[in-house]
UniProtKB/TrEMBL annotation:
This is ABC transporter ATP-binding protein. The chain crosses the membrane at residues 34-55, 75-96, 151-169, 175-192, 261-283, 295-316. Pfam families: ABC_membrane, ABC_tran. GO terms for molecular function: ABC-type oligopeptide transporter activity; ATP binding; ATP hydrolysis activity. Residues 36-318 form the ABC transmembrane type-1 domain. Keywords: ATP-binding, Cell membrane, Membrane, Nucleotide-binding, Transmembrane, Transmembrane helix, Transport. The keyword Lyase does not apply. InterPro entries: AAA+_ATPase, ABC1_TM_dom, ABC1_TM_sf, ABC_transporter-like_ATP-bd, ABC_transporter-like_CS, P-loop_NTPase, Type_1_exporter. Residues 353-580 form the ABC transporter domain.
Amino acid sequence: MIRWLSAAIDGQDRGRLEEAFRWLYTFVRPQSKAIIGLMLLSVCSSALVLLQPWLTKLLIDEGLLAKDYGMLVTMAITMIFVGIFSTGLSGVSRYLHTRLSGRILFALREHLYEHLQTLSPQFYGGRRIGDILSRLDGDVSQIQRFAVDSMFSALSSVLGLAGAFALLITLSWKLSLLVLVLIPLEVLWLRWMRRKVERQARIIRERSADLSSFLVETLPAMKFIQAVSQEKRESGKLHNLSNHYLTDLLKLQVTEFFTQAVPGTLTSLTRATAFLIGGYWVIEGQWQLGSLIAFSTYLGMATGPVQSLLGLYVAIQRMSVSLDRVMDLRRAEPDITAPDTPAILPDDMQGELQFDRVCFRYQDRDAAILDHASVIMPAGGTIALTGPSGVGKSTVIDLLMRYYDPQQGRILIDGINLKQLAPMELRKRVALVSQDITMFRGTLMENIRYASPVATDAEVLAASDEARLSDLIASLPLGLETPLGERGSQLSGGQKQRVAIARAILQKPIILILDEATSAVDEATETEVIANVNRIFSGKTRILISHRASTLSGVDLRIELKDGQLVVENSVSEVELNGIN
Ligand code: ADP
């Protein structure tokens, strides 16, 4: 089946497609019971559909024309029951169908989301969020529509085609020859059109991704756009994007119209021919009227499935485009993986960090951020990491948090190489407070508790107290239960900072990192925050990154990142002592 599907698709790498279909199949397989159930229902409803014209034929030929009242009543009653039964059956199968396709859709999306959670900032840096969103949303739905809807429509098409064809032959084998002319013509036409449809479908998916990217990028930046009065420019961009989208959509519509219209016209021609020949036979008394009517209905039923089976080709093309876009996300490898047997950090950790001849550079960048850098950051000390903007301080922190691994050398925490640790194990022990504090929609309480969901209400209260959040909580209408807007827009920079510190307190880290965390607040507040941090986290290793001299006064060790080296400057206390001497 998988081989057949990938063979049906031109212009793409077969191996890649087979891999993609195999992946897709892993989501379909767990639903096999539901699929078999729906297939049985499908068989029943196809049989019922085929039964209707036959009943009409009997009604006309054996009832009306034969003037048999008993037959007329029997047929009418049978039709009523068949009608009610079909309606019930279609209701049940629609319900089961939605459940099945929903399960596959959500399983696919959840799996992809989990995979996205393993990818590094490098991945997100190189992609537009709107594009990822469009793959997760539109493309995944397209695949699910194919995996469920098209497969069932193919099945009922095959059944309908076989049944209708058998009944056509039963009614008149001579007239059935018309179908044999019609079908090859339709097949040839649809094969010719399908590559066009595939190319245009890809363009449409990309246009839709452009639109989502635009909205995802500009909506959060609205305040800035207003501040620099560029609203017109952005509306203009949206207008252009929409215009492009619409133009391509209409192109696809026209192509799809011709793809469908030609077979439709051929069918009408065939039907007219059948009426001409069959009608002549009826007038000549060689054939019955009911049979002619049933024949024309079955003719429609035979060509409909041919179209939808060939339409399946078009659906496969569209779906393969989406599948490839989704697989592109799936194929992105995480930079960091947990080792097979990860080391466990002991409860009584000290928090000493050691860089041992560490080399690191970003992919596609010439300059190394670290070039055989070695340094020891003592346990329990306050360490300042300095250096001009863009030198790589945040990158050093990313290495410490294991968002990346060094290309050479080792980073050790209490003598254990970070590479031996599962990222989650390490990140539980390291709390990071950065300038950019992430807030989620939810209450203040939920936000504070985000990194430690098991913390009790009392612990959250105590942490908020320690982080000097009490005044804020008292000023809010519902206190800790106050809902925060999207991205915490109701809080000031300093307040968000305190939330971040409360989060860090709950996390009970062994290492605390403040990455430019206080640059958004004034110096007095900063001094207070730092004093607070030193009080709360005394005995833990604290790493501070800041440009302000005041932040860095009183640290135990000052390390400058310079030319790829972590250079230990004199500890501040020594400098001060030297000054005094
Ligand atoms: P700092 O924190 O000292 O201001 P960063 O660590 O943010 O510096 O950045 C160091 C250098 O690495 C910069 O030149 C920056 O452009 C580059 N850089 C940062 N992140 C990435 C990334 N994901 N991919 C490629 N280059 C990056």
